[in-house]
């Protein structure tokens, strides 16, 4: 890292851990409420956290949390689809070929493992999550960090 003569700060490890734990509670699979309500609460919390800690140097941390959060949201979608027929129909709706959609919809793998698949990443893309209302953590952080 280049020394620019500026002092850089970072959030303490406990603050980062608390942030992830709070996001974990907000994205629990057994959590009630609509998907839009969940995204709204996530946006409120992440925006506040980034506004508070945004002057810190934490680009890699924000990138990893954003990736993990998208994974958690895909997992919520997958669980809420419940039935094989619903999973198949939704995968087809989001542009997955019939045979591949049928294979993934019928899998016996757990929610977390299925949401790591390329198929689900193509069905529920980052762009789709943003279009559903999720604010991109990387952009929020960049905006805050560069304004300081």
Please give the number of β-strands.
Answer: 0
Query: What radius of gyration results from the CA coordinates?
Result: 18 Å
Question: What share of the residues does DSSP label as strand, in percent?
Answer: under 5%
Which spans have pLDDT < 50 for at least 5 consecutive residues?
Answer: none
For the largest beta-sheet, the strand count, sense and barrel status come to: none
User: Roughly what is the average pLDDT, rounded to an integer?
Assistant: 92
Helices and strands, in order, run as HHHHHHHHH
N/C terminus separation: 19 Å
Secondary structure class reads mainly alpha
DSSP helix fraction:
55-70%
Number of helices: 9
Give an overview in words.
This protein has helices at 13-26, 35-53, 59-80, 84-93, 98-105, 111-114, 118-123, 126-131, 137-147. With 148 residues, the protein is mostly helical.
In short:
By secondary structure, the protein is mainly α.
How would you summarize the topology of this molecule?
Layout: H1 13-26, H2 35-53, H3 59-80, H4 84-93, H5 98-105, H6 111-114, H7 118-123, H8 126-131, H9 137-147
Name the descriptors.
mainly alpha; 148 residues; single chain
């Amino acid at each position: 890292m280049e020394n620019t003569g500026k002092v850089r700060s970072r959030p303490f490890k406990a603050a980062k851990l608390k942030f992830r734990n709070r996001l974990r509670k907000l994205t629990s699979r057994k959590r009630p409420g609509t998907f839009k309500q969940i995204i709204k609460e996530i946006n409120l919390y992440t925006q506040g956290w980034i506004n508070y800690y945004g002057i810190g140097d934490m680009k890699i941390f924000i990138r990893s949390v954003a990736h993990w959060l998208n994974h958690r949201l895909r997992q919520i979608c997958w669980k809420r689809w419940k039935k094989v027929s619903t999973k198949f129909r939704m995968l087809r709706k989001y542009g997955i070929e019939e045979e591949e959609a049928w294979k993934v919809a019928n899998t016996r793998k757990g929610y977390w493992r299925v949401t790591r698949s390329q198929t689900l990443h193509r069905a529920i893309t980052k762009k789709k999550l943003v279009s559903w209302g999720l604010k991109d953590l990387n952009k929020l952080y960049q905006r805050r960090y560069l304004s300081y």
